[in-house]
Amino acid sequence: MKKTILVVEDQRNHSLLLKYALEDKGYDDIKTAADIETALKMLQDKKNPPSLVCLDIMLPKSPDDPTIDEEGGFRIAKEIKGVPFIFTSVYERKEEIERGISLGAKAFFVKPFDTEDVAVKTQEIIGK
Amino acid sequence: MGSELLSLVYKWYCKYDHIEDLIKEIKQGIKEEWEAETCLLDISKEGFKPIIQCASYSKDSLHCFERKGLKEDFEKAKGREYCSDILEKKKEERPVYRLICSLCDTNNKTPIAILNLTSRDKESLSSVKDNLQHHIALSLQIHRAIEKWNSLYEITNKLTTQVTNLSSLTNEILKTVASALEAEASSLFLICEEDSNYLELVGEYGYTKNEKGLKILIADGERTGLSAYVAKIREPLSLDSEGIRNHLCWSGGKFPPNHLPSKRCSSWLGIPLINTDKNLLGVIKAENKKDEPGFSKEDMAYLQVLGSHIAICLEMADKYKKEVAGKEKAYHYAISHSLKTPLHSFLEAIRQLKKVYSDIDKKCISQSSDQALKGLRDKYSQIFDIIDEDSYKFARVAKNAIYAAKVERKTYQISPQVLEVKEIENMIERVKRIFRTCLRKENIEIKENIKLSQRDRVYMDKEQIEDVLINLVANSVSAIKDRRPREKEKVASIKILVRNEKGKTYFSISDEGKGIEGDIFTSLPSHPESTGLGLYLTKEIIFAHKGEIFLSEPLEKGICIEFWLPKEEKI
Questions:
Q1: Is the pLDDT of residue B253 over 60?
Q2: What is the mean pLDDT of the segment spanning B503-525?
């Protein structure tokens, strides 16, 4: 079965690099969302649910509202049902990492991270 | 003449803030009015020093007493309250009169100075002998006191300028207290940040040799020493030698030996440092009043006034530190966000671009017979090598700058974790990978030898020790390049050895470079390609791990830098 990965990241450079690193590992259906609203819409699409979600935490609210929600990633995580997800964030404080893990994240990557590491972790979680 | 001098003395009482002005006035007054030789000698612990001299006296005033055959009077005046007879000496046509008297402390009658007056006016000398002697003594005493209290203004000003740096403030406080009280030693204890039931020694000055960070419990019934006692009662305490030994805080109790005042301690003065909200901040104490059996009431009053200011300064320093730490956090976050993150993505982009290029190369270029295309391929590879090498150099400089900012602002921290041997191997592999282009170009090889068993564990901040290795390897590469700028045909090697010894993990990095001179860990290296921060930061990182870094025994060629990291529980 084709595995879809949803990368939620507002920095285009980062999402692109992560996309390529994942593609390099053989995942060829990578979707990206750059804000909370778009990400939630994509998650509600029942036809093609992602196999894994890569979530940044600080995110803009919507394509029209660039205000940064500092806990946007946490909010999205609460809406994810039955899909494994990982956080990728600039947050490096223990409390935030613990909070992320307590929400059910399979991993927490503090930026800047090696995209290769995320791709390897993805393989571990959802297989090739 | 007598009344004129009396009014002059009263003027001294009220007018002058500084002893220099008083001395000037006495000098002028005596010289103008009396037209003769005058000398006022201060009796200090070190001997005698003139505080004023007029007319023909030489610098050596003691000598002048001997020369004039006045030694006997001088000796008498030195030891007790004394006033000589008015001596007459024929000189030229008019006679000259001389008077030698002691100026005594009004409280204990011990001489504090000797006045030696010579005048042609016998009447004025008589007025000194009758009553002015005591006025002059009192005026001198008052002005010495004024001078001392006035110095508080300067001292407090000086302390205030140090609040941006707690450690230099501490040093200044300790030095100031010891010198103002003429004490041999001083110590500052502050309430322990982690546990307010303890006092923590933050600094010492003088002969005492306690370890910084020593903690003393403040509690009833616990015999923990005089400073803890002062903290407990929140009152100043002054003791002489006997008072120290017999103090109730020792009686019957057992106390750790390092909480006892040292055997040398013959007098003790300590006060609690209390802030404006009446909270105890700590205790400051002085030991051994120089040449006195104990500290005076005046010393205690002085220290209390100084103590209030010390408390204010300590609070300011604490507030400053917290504010700065807050700003630093934001600053470092800004740096890591605005510098580190794009840099990382830049390196990532290059890595991926190389991958894409190699795919293109495999699929198209290598199979093509187009010579022009092959030429382009060579160019492309060379340009990539440059980007590869320089981007890592750039990354290293940026990272060092971030470390340096943290170290300088004392907000640098490590996050150590337990690592398995495999991770150490991976770390060294990564270091080799970073330098691969440069190593190939310079014909240098890195040989590692990890003498650890699979069961061994190393406790370290992985990222930072990796940076240490990168910095050290970068230095070795530079040293080798410097030694043989043109002869690259022979392989030069950099050896990385990791071993365990007595519970410590040793890393040594040796090269066949041109060697290094001077204190390489404190001075900034002079290599043109160096950021000048590498070894300095390397040292800070190792120190933060509570390890050590040093230059090992000189090699035949090149150098070997070694560092060790302690076991987990020691950090």
A1: no
A2: 74
Structure tokens at B281: 């901040």
Q: Which residue range forms the structural domain that includes residue A43?
A: 1-9+16-29+36-58+70-108
Q: CA dihedral defined by B348, B351, B354, B360, rounded to 10 degrees? A: -70
Binned at pLDDT 50, 70 and 90, residue A43 comes out as very high
With respect to residue A42, please indicate whether it lies within any of the assigned structural domains: yes
Cis (ω within 30 of 0) for the bond into B342?
no
**Residues 296-335 in B contacting A (C-alpha not used; CB under 8 Å):** 333
pLDDT > 70? residue B570: no
Tell me the C-alpha distance between B371 and B384, whole Å: 20
Indicate whether A81 belongs to any domain: yes
| Secondary structure of residue B414 in the 3-state scheme | coil
The dihedral built from the CA positions of residue B539, B545, B546 and B550, taken in this order, carries a sign that is negative
Determine the Cα–Cα distance for residues B264 and B260; give it in Å rounded to an integer: 11
Distance from CA of B391 to the nearest CA of A (A): 16
End-to-end CA distance of chain A: 10
Q: Is the dihedral of CA B511, B516, B518, B519 positive or negative?
A: negative
Q: Are the Cβ atoms of B348 and A111 closer than 8 angstroms? A: no
Chain A: give the shortest CA distance to residue B344, in Å.
Answer: 6
Q: Residues B531-541: pLDDT tens digits? A: 446 777 888 88
Structural domain count, chain A? 1
pLDDT, position A54: 96
A44: domain CATH number is 3.40.50.2300
Please give the residue of chain B at the shortest CA–CA distance from A13: B345
pLDDT digits (tens, 9 = 90+) for B376-421: 887 787 788 778 777 777 777 777 777 776 776 666 778 888 899 9
Model pLDDT for residues B291-314, shown as the tens digit of each residue: 778 898 888 988 998 898 899 889
Q: Is the torsion defined by CA of B253, B259, B263, B265 positive or negative?
A: negative
**Which residue has 């593609």 as its token pair?**
A23
Q: Is B168 left (phi over 0), alpha (psi -120 to 50) or beta?
A: alpha
| % chain B with pLDDT above 70 | 73
Helix (H, G, I), strand (E, B) or coil at B35: coil
* Region class of B565: left (phi > 0), else alpha (psi between -120 and 50), else beta: beta
Provide CB contacts within 8 A for B428, sequence distance 6+: B446, B448, B450, B469, B496, B498
**Mean pLDDT across chain B, nearest whole number?**
76
Confidence (pTM)? 0.47
Identify the sign of the CA torsion A109, A112, A115, A116.
Answer: negative
> Is A122 among the domain residues?
no
Question: If contacts are CB pairs under 8 Å, which of residues 349-378 in chain B contact chain A?
Answer: 349, 352, 355
DSSP A128: -
User: Beta B492-501 vs B47-53: how paired, if at all?
Assistant: unpaired
Structural domain includes residue A117 = no
